[in-house]
């Protein structure tokens, strides 16, 4: 499956939005955290898991989705949320803990919920899988259109919830696609020391569904395979498991010294940064550099607007903490 | 902070936990560790630092993110003659592996009529206050203490942290060892300095099931554990300025619960405030109050009070979370209402 020109440019621009967003969040996150790094300080407190480098996965998959489709995301959700069309201003405001945020400040960066585009999150590993099955089952039972995509990391593929959900999806032929972002690190533990098989796509066989492995963090290849899997789900042919090689250019969370990384790994990953790589390819395919510059500027402007919106928004009254437990 | 006398050796809780495990591993070859990022990384909260380098990857085992698998495996290894210490990185993650904990670890001894034992330690981090939101900030003390068959401890300082870990490893029963992130001595988690105290180098045990009166007083008893003890001590300092003499009881253990120390203290002061960062309802605070009132309600000069976490999931935004957390102001306000 090949992307149209429009899809390609959307993918590129969305990757740039995601990257600029992470860069902006990183900058704000560090405010108030120097010279001594204290997670509790600054305009954005708590843990912060950046997705720099993993953008191709989000855009290659979400290019095939629209608002009615469900996405369940991970503790590292920003690129997935942006590609799914979560409101960027309200997402930024949530990360700042403001009243205008998606959840009025109750959820924060690991718990982004935007029902308008069927986007949900969990900070618990592999807990994207079961809910995606449920959303897919609901569509099937109600004979409504739309499919579900669960994103997870390669570390989550060793969690019971992953295996149980895959079996459910397989036995019930659910319209769901499981997308593993294989950045090869579960915090400090490499995939090779945590996973009994080199590639998780082979595990699909145990659950009666096709499995694919996509090397190279390549948005074109991701678009192709994800498009086939999503079309298959839409056609009622059942679930697919896809594992995608991607790169975590940042630490597990901000403040991670990353001493576990082999020497030179980061440099090698940055040399393969998917965003400049895609830009080069687009130019080689005949897209004018100026038109890409325009997209990049537009992306920067969107991010700047979202950050300003978040900064300028008010905090909710603190007593809002006691509301929204029940509807 | 004042300079410390040179004969003191002040350790953080993280360091004290690691030292206890190190000494137990040196002493007993059946002790080994399993958990996520406890190897070369030294534990996310620093409590296994240096152990991988000393004991290697067979005895300090990084695991996949498979809590049901490795905690169940610890149950099996413990029943087969070893003394595993396993880490559940955040207590909030118990949801993915609770069967291994409360249906296996906690019950196998009883099911076997006491003929089998499960000598393992499950250490897990608790507590919020640094905006990590509702899946990484809970305490859940009451959840674990409620279910029979496992001992539950939570240190408020490094001295107790070391002695409790030593006692937990040597105990022939499963022990849940809950350490509060805000007491770990890691600056990046906004640490409470009062938890970093003089800690002897030689090995020693702190008795599981024995509470400590950490400050004597006459007018009111403040009962807490872990971070609650520090909030109570700060409140006691400020109450003292007003001429109110508060006694502070550090529970140290939830199971077994040292009811006698609490009862004796309240018999003396006549007033009880329980400080608990766990949810308000159905938890430790209710249990402590019931303990006192069931024993002899006539000893109370006022209705008991509790300063707890309200019954809501933990919000992310700093000001919302701070509204919910126990603090010295709330303890003093509770006293004033008595």
Automatic annotation (TrEMBL), chain B:
<keyword id="KW-0670">Pyruvate</keyword>
<dbReference type="Pfam" id="PF02780">
    <property type="entry name" value="Transketolase_C"/>
</dbReference>
<dbReference type="GO" id="GO:0016491">
    <property type="term" value="F:oxidoreductase activity"/>
</dbReference>
<keyword id="KW-0786">Thiamine pyrophosphate</keyword>
<feature type="domain" description="Transketolase-like pyrimidine-binding">
    <location>
        <begin position="11"/>
        <end position="186"/>
    </location>
</feature>
<protein>
    <submittedName>
        <fullName>Pyruvate/2-oxoglutarate dehydrogenase complex, dehydrogenase component subunit beta</fullName>
    </submittedName>
</protein>
<dbReference type="InterPro" id="IPR029061">
    <property type="entry name" value="THDP-binding"/>
</dbReference>
<dbReference type="InterPro" id="IPR033248">
    <property type="entry name" value="Transketolase_C"/>
</dbReference>
<dbReference type="InterPro" id="IPR005475">
    <property type="entry name" value="Transketolase-like_Pyr-bd"/>
</dbReference>
<dbReference type="Pfam" id="PF02779">
    <property type="entry name" value="Transket_pyr"/>
</dbReference>
<keyword id="KW-0560">Oxidoreductase</keyword>
<dbReference type="InterPro" id="IPR009014">
    <property type="entry name" value="Transketo_C/PFOR_II"/>
</dbReference>
């Amino acid at each position: 499956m090949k992307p149209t020109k429009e899809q390609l440019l959307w993918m590129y621009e969305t990757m740039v939005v995601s990257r600029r967003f992470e860069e902006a969040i990183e900058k704000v996150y560090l405010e108030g955290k120097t010279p001594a790094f204290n997670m509790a300080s600054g305009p954005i407190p708590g843990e912060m898991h950046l997705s720099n480098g993993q953008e191709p996965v989000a855009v290659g998959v979400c290019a095939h989705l629209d608002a009615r489709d469900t996405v369940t995301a991970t503790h590292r959700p920003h690129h997935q949320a942006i590609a799914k069309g979560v409101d960027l201003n309200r997402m930024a405001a949530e990360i700042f803990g403001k009243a205008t945020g998606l959840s009025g400040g109750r959820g924060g960066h690991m718990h982004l919920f935007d029902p308008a585009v069927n986007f949900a999150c969990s900070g618990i590993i592999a807990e994207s899988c079961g809910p995606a099955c449920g959303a897919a089952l609901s569509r099937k039972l109600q004979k409504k259109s739309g499919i579900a995509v669960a994103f997870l990391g390669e570390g989550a593929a060793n969690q019971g919830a992953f295996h149980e959900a895959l079996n459910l999806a397989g036995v019930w032929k659910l319209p769901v696609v499981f997308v593993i972002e294989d950045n090869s690190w579960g915090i400090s533990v490499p995939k090779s020391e945590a996973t009994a098989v080199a590639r998780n796509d082979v595990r699909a066989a145990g659950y009666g569904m096709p499995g694919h492995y996509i090397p190279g963090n390549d948005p074109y290849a991701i678009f192709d395979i994800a498009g086939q899997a999503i079309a298959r789900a839409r056609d009622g042919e059942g679930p697919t498991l896809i594992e995608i090689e991607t790169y975590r250019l940042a630490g597990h969370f901000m403040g991670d010294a990353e001493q576990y990384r082999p020497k030179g790994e980061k440099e090698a990953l940055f040399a393969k940064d998917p965003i400049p790589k895609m830009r080069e390819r687009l130019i080689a395919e005949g897209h004018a550099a100026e038109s890409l510059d325009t997209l990049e500027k537009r992306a920067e402007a969107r991010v700047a607007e979202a950050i300003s919106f978040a900064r300028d928004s008010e905090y909710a009254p603190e007593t809002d903490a006691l509301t929204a437990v029940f509807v | 902070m004042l300079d410390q006398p040179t004969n003191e050796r002040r350790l953080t809780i993280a360091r004290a936990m690691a030292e206890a495990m190190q000494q137990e591993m040196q002493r007993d070859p059946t002790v080994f560790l399993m958990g996520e990022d406890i190897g070369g990384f030294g534990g996310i909260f620093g409590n296994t630092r240096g152990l991988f380098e000393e004991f290697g990857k067979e005895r300090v085992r990084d695991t996949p993110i498979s809590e049901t698998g490795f905690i169940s495996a610890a149950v099996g290894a413990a029943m087969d003659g070893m003394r595993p210490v396993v880490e559940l990185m955040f207590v909030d993650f118990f949801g993915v592996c609770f069967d291994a904990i409360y249906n296996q670890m906690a019950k196998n001894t009883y099911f076997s009529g006491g003929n089998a034992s499960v000598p393992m330690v499950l250490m897990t981090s608790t507590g919020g206050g640094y905006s990590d939101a509702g899946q990484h900030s809970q305490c859940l003390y009451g959840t674990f203490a409620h279910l029979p068959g496992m001992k539950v401890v939570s240190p408020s300082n490094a001295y107790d942290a070391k002695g409790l870990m030593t006692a937990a490893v040597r105990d022939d029963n499963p022990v849940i060892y809950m350490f509060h992130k805000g007491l770990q001595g890691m600056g990046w988690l906004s640490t409470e300095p009062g938890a970093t105290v003089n800690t002897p180098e030689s090995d020693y045990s702190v008795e599981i099931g024995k509470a400590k009166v950490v400050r004597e007083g006459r007018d009111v008893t403040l009962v807490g554990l872990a971070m609650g003890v520090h909030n109570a001590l700060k409140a006691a300092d400020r109450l003292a300025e007003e001429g109110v003499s508060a006694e502070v009881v550090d529970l140290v253990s939830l199971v077994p619960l040292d009811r006698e120390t609490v009862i004796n203290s309240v018999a003396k002061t006549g007033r009880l405030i329980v400080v608990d960062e766990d949810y308000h309802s159905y938890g430790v605070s209710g249990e402590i109050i019931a303990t006192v009132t069931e024993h002899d309600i006539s000893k109370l000069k006022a209705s008991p009070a509790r300063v707890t976490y309200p019954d809501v999931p933990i919000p992310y935004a700093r000001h919302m979370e701070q509204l919910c957390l126990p603090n010295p102001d709330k303890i003093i306000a509770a006293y004033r209402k008595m």
